[in-house]
Amino acid sequence: MKKYIVAILSVCFAASVFTACSKNDDNLDIPLMYEGDKYAKNAIDTFIINEYIIPYNISVKFRWDPFEVPTNKFLVPVKEDVVIPVMTIVKQIWINPYEQMLGKGFIQKYAPKQYVLVGSANYNNDGTIVLGEAEGGRKITLYQLNKFDRKNVPFVKQMLHTIHHEFAHILHQTILYQREYKQITPGGYTATWYNTSNAQALALGFITPYARSNSDEDFVEMISTMLVEGKAGFDAIVNAQTPAARDLLRRKEALVSAYMLDKWKVDIYELQTITQAAIAQATN
């Protein structure tokens, strides 16, 4: 079963938004490097072997493989010159913070074993964009990487949000979170979450609109937002809400914190601090 992290177009039916997020923004003139072709290993392959395969048994596919991506979408291969920068920053801001707290063995055991890199976004017909997806805790696909710029902090944080979201799925599928979590906002989940704005979601006690899709997505969106925004950023979001919404979000935060500490021996507030320092250093 695939799990998706999706970016909402803030006003789904506004012409200006569709223009801003049009497929025409993607450069289609990218040479294909087919995974199945014979090729001599280059500097990218060496980097992947040394930084991912040897230490963590994680493969990174950047050459085009049609069997690894949706066949019903118009997708663009990733540019070679962004592969090492992307995977360098992934290691800096995702692997290193967890490894600092829990050791290399934790990443070796629980991290997804394959990354698939795609240059363009994955557009849906309902006005949303798939930024990343995961299959059964085994593979993470990252989209829209041809726009990568390590100094573009919002883009880097968006990419990190995707990874943390998908990794949090692996954690809760390994050890389930508390049943009480599902009872905090049980009536707020909806299949049409994409019709919800950020402000509306927060007012209902959901940290993002996508968190409204179901309790599992709600839980991992809390984890990913807490880590990507850091304590100060997360507190600013929550404290700006009404007392009722603030109470719901704080109750969810408390259960997330307890889960991470009790089940994984991770102080999420310490992990927030380490992650924020890593983001600042990597994007400087």
TrEMBL record:
Annotated keywords: Hydrolase, Lipoprotein, Signal
Record-given protein name: Substrate import-associated zinc metallohydrolase lipoprotein
MF-aspect GO terms: hydrolase activity
SUPFAM superfamilies: Metalloproteases ('zincins'), catalytic domain
Pfam families referenced in this protein's UniProt entry, alphabetically: Peptidase_Mx1
Domain of life: Bacteria
Organism field: Chitinophaga skermanii
InterPro entries reported for this sequence: LP_HExxH_w_TonB
Signal sequence range: 1-19
Gene3D superfamilies associated with the record: 3.40.390.70
